[in-house]
């Protein structure tokens, strides 16, 4: 037996009917000699003292509530409750109690809820008085009737007897006739008594009485009685609201009179429960359980009757999608459907399945597609609610419809694109609708709820579809707000940040934050689809432009996006980040934030701390080599010093490796995986470099070669022979500015980790970093960034002492110049 299973809190009910916590301990059921019977013992977990010792009495009514509560009464005014930490423990003790009382553990209550004293009283009463005698239904007896009704509520047996008496004598109708008399005479005292009587009868919780009270001839008088609450100075005008203000709209005439009557009745009873009756306290909750059930079953009946009437539903759909339907009519039709779907939530799972399948067969999705694109805000909002019911019910059904539709339609009118456009164009300043739609989109693109069958995989099919047809619509606002012309000033690293890239518009910032949240979700769940998209669109560079936003929440969203990417520890992404110098906007934001201790500061530091703790070598080397001078002044955390230490340790390790083997074998630094070439074949790589006395290149991008080298050994040997004929002029030469000048060939999509035949020559000029840490801009290096157009921005930044470039020249066999001997 585990401790937590039997861990309980002991509660007692005080005079104010509030539960007092008596302490936490562990419960057990054992035979106690003193009490002569099986008892419940609770010992305190703090000191082992006895919190509770209670004999399981064969006649005590024990109640199990909410799977983890057992409640009972020890004496007339002494109620106890055990609240279990775990359901399993509650079940065990419940079985013990049921065993003692000879009951089946499946029951929720072990005895009828009656006071013992009361039980004895009833046993003594002669058989003839099994019903309560009701006073005659007259004006001067109303006070006596009210007292009787309120007095029985505390006793389940007397409640039953009163209900039977009311039913047998047709008493309720007589009371309602008295109500009309009182109202005509303006007899306020009598009306107040009638309020107490009718409210008490509702609390008897009997379905047979409800049938009478909520019938067409009685319900308005019942509502009338409930207007005269003695606590109110003036009676409420509920009947006036129900008859004059609340209008029953028939979008399509309902011919079935029984159905019409059910709809009216349900609306009015719901009104009584929600508006007229006060919110029940914890102890009154069960008093109205039958009323809740009454409404529930009415709704089930209404949905079933409407669903069976296919002619009615077909007519609704026809009018909904008909262009000739006027706006008011369409608004009412959509609202009808919204309420219809809300009612359907009361159905049992199998009936709900049938309901949504009926709607799908009738064409709910194409109809939604039309109405979601309409100008009327109310119609769009209701359509969104209906769409959310459908997505919640079956995301697969919606996905299947969209993919079939894609084969016949343009991208613009696809249902998902209509949804995305509604999200983008939400006019609400707080973007309430957009947030709801974003949640629905996330459900649709979540691989967790996608099905995989033997002959097809929904995940790959749908994600291929989504990235081909919809992703460009989703990212359009993001790309538009971070476009190249807006970024030009920011592309030069050392420039003054005079333009705030993100529009000041709070609504636009909110929208971009939502889009980023969805993209972050994609990074976590979609692996290669989103990876290809980010690489091809250079999306991370565009997102990081938002680090300049004056809206901190948006800058944090951009940072979170990058953090998720780095969190994957994927070398493809790492190479993309280092090649594009994408840490720069993050470091700029950290330095611009200055000494302020806020969420942005903590989030940026956490990003670098993650890289340090996880020891991501390629990123560590890139950060230390390019940004350490700017960051070394930050000493309130040890993160950056720790990164430097890791970097130096790795460098020492590499040097030791190289020094521990003969120079002829040192080529191991290029390939350390299972496909490493033979040592004597690889020695060609660095024999010339050794003779020139060049510094050893740290193996920052150890997996770069895995991707760029031709897979087959033969291709490699051919390439090697071709390169041997080249001369050694391509070594870096020191420029007069004191930096290095590199001339090398570079693939336009190298930042994306892809091979490309369309290569360009890029010249980058760098100057040494300023050691002045006062300004983020002074600490950065001025570079010229050449960006490839057509959406693929390639940023190349070269730094002094950056030996990585040399390795980069060597890594692409097709373009690598031969180093001199």
From TrEMBL:
> Which residue stretches does the UniProt record annotate as biased composition, category Basic and acidic residues?
701-732
Q: Which GO terms describe its molecular function?
A: protein phosphatase activator activity
Domain PP4R3 EVH1-like intervals: 5-101
One Pfam family cited in the UniProt record for this chain:
PP4R3
- Gene Ontology biological-process annotations: DNA damage response
Q: Which Gene Ontology terms of cellular component type are present?
A: nucleoplasm; protein phosphatase 4 complex
Q: Which residues form the Serine/threonine-protein phosphatase 4 regulatory subunit 3-like central domain?
A: 144-649
**Region feature (Disordered):** 681-821
Which family is this sequence assigned to?
Belongs to the SMEK family.
Compositional bias (Acidic residues): 681-694, 799-810
Bias kind Low complexity: ranges: 745-788
- Tell me which domain of life the UniProt entry assigns to the organism this sequence originates from: Eukaryota
The identity of this protein, by name, is: Protein phosphatase 4 regulatory subunit 3B
- Kindly give the InterPro entries that the UniProt entry links to this protein: ARM-like, ARM-type_fold, EVH1_PP4R3, P4R3-like_central_dom, PH-like_dom_sf, PP4R3-like
């Amino acid at each position: 037996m585990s401790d937590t299973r039997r861990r309980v809190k002991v509660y007692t009910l005080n005079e104010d009917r509030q539960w007092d916590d008596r302490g936490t301990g562990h419960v057990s059921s054992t035979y106690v000699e003193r009490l002569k019977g099986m008892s419940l013992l609770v010992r305190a977990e703090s000191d082992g003292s006895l919190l509770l010792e209670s004999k399981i009495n064969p006649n005590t009514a024990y109640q199990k509530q909410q799977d983890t509560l057992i409640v009972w009464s020890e004496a007339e005014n002494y109620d106890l409750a055990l609240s279990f930490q775990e359901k399993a423990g509650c079940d065990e003790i419940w079985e013990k109690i049921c065993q003692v009382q000879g009951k089946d553990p499946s029951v929720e209550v072990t005895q009828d809820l009656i006071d013992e004293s009361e039980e004895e009283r009833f046993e003594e009463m002669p058989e003839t008085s099994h019903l309560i005698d009701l006073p005659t239904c007259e004006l001067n007896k109303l006070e006596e009737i009210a007292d009787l009704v309120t007095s029985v509520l505390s006793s389940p047996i007397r409640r039953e007897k009163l209900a039977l008496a009311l039913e047998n004598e047709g008493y309720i109708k007589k009371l309602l006739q008295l109500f009309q008399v009182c109202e005509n005479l303006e007899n306020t005292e009598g009306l107040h008594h009638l309020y107490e009587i009718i409210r008490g009868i509702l609390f008897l919780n009997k379905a047979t009485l409800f049938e009478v009270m909520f019938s067409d001839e009685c319900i308005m008088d019942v509502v009338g009685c409930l207007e005269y609450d003695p606590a109110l100075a003036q009676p409420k005008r509920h009947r006036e609201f129900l008859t004059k203000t609340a209008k029953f709209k028939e979008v399509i005439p309902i011919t079935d009179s029984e159905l019409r009557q059910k709809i009216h009745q349900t609306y009015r009873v719901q009104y009584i429960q929600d508006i007229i009756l006060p919110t029940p306290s914890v102890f009154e909750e069960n008093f109205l359980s039958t009323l809740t059930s009454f409404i529930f079953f009415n709704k089930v009946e209404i949905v079933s009757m409407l669903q069976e009437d296919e002619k009615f539903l077909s007519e609704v759909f026809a009018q909904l999608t008909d262009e000739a339907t006027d706006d008011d009519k369409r608004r009412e039709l959509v609202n009808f459907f919204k309420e219809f779907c809300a009612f359907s939530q009361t159905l049992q799972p199998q009936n709900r399945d049938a309901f949504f399948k009926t709607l799908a067969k009738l064409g709910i999705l194409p109809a939604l597609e039309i109405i979601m694109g309409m100008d009327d805000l109310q119609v769009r909002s209701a359509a969104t609610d209906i769409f959310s019911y459908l997505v919640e019910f079956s995301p697969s059904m919606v996905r299947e419809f969209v993919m079939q539709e894609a084969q016949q339609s343009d991208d613009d009118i696809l249902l998902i694109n209509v949804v995305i456009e509604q999200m983008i164009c939400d006019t609400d300043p707080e973007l309430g609708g957009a947030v709801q739609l974003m949640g629905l989109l996330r459900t649709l693109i979540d691989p967790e709820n996608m099905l995989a069958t033997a002959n097809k995989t929904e995940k790959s099919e749908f994600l291929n579809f989504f990235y081909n047809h919809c992703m460009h619509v989703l990212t359009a606002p993001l790309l538009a707000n971070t476009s190249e012309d807006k970024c030009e000033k920011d592309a030069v690293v050392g420039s003054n940040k005079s333009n705030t890239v993100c529009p000041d518009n709070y609504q636009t910032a909110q929208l971009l934050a939502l889009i980023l949240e969805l993209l972050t979700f994609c990074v976590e769940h979609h692996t290669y689809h989103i990876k290809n998209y980010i690489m091809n669109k250079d999306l991370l560079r565009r997102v990081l432009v938002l680090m300049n936003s004056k809206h901190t929440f948006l800058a944090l969203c951009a940072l979170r996006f990058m953090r998720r990417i780095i969190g994957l520890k994927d070398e493809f992404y790492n190479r993309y980040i280092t090649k594009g110098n994408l840490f720069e906007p993050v470091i700029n934001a950290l330095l611009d934030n200055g000494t302020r201790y806020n969420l942005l500061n903590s989030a940026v530091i956490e990003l670098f701390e993650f890289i340090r703790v996880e020891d991501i070598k390629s990123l560590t080397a890139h950060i230390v080599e390019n940004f350490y001078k700017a960051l070394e002044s930050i000493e309130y955390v040890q993160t950056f010093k720790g990164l430097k230490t890791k970097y130096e340790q790795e460098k020492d390790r590499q040097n030791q490796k190289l020094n521990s083997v003969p120079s002829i074998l040192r080529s191991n630094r290029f390939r350390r995986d299972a496909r490493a070439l033979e040592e004597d074949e690889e020695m060609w790589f660095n024999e010339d470099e050794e003779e020139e006395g060049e510094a050893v290149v740290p193996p920052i991008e150890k997996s770069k070669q895995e991707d760029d080298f031709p897979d087959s050994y033969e291709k490699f040997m051919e390439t090697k022979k071709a390169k041997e004929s080249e001369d050694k002029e391509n070594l870096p030469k020191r420029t007069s500015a004191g930096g290095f000048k590199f001339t090398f060939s570079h693939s336009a999509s190298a930042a994306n980790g892809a091979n490309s035949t369309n290569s360009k020559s890029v010249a980058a000029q760098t100057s040494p970093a300023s050691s002045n840490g006062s300004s983020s801009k002074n600490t950065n290096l001025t570079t010229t960034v050449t960006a490839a157009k057509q959406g693929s921005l390639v940023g190349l930044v070269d730094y002094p002492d950056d030996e990585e470039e040399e390795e980069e020249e060597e890594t692409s066999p097709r373009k690598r110049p031969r180093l001199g001997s």
